[in-house]
Design a protein that fits this description.
Length: 65
C-alpha cells in the first residue's frame, strides 16, 4: 500500500456511505478521550507501528427450485 499522511488517514472512510475516521472519532469520544486517542494514534502512525487489516467476502446467490 502506498503511504498516506496522517491527515489523509483521518479524512478517509472505509466506503462512501461510512463516516470518515475523523467523524467517527468525534462522534464516539468526548473531548478528552478524543485528544488522547488522536495523540496515541498519531504516535503509532509516525512510528509505523500501526497494523492494517482488511477482509473481503464474496456472496453469490442462486435460485433453488
Amino acid at each position: 500500500m502506498r503511504p498516506v499522511s496522517f491527515e489523509a488517514l483521518l479524512d478517509s472512510a472505509p466506503n462512501p456511505n461510512a463516516p470518515t475516521v475523523r467523524d467517527a472519532i468525534a462522534a464516539a469520544l468526548d473531548e478528552a478521550e478524543h485528544e488522547r486517542f488522536l495523540g496515541e494514534l498519531k504516535r503509532a502512525f509516525v512510528r509505523d507501528a500501526s497494523v492494517r487489516r482488511m477482509a473481503v467476502a464474496y456472496l453469490a446467490a442462486s435460485k433453488s427450485r
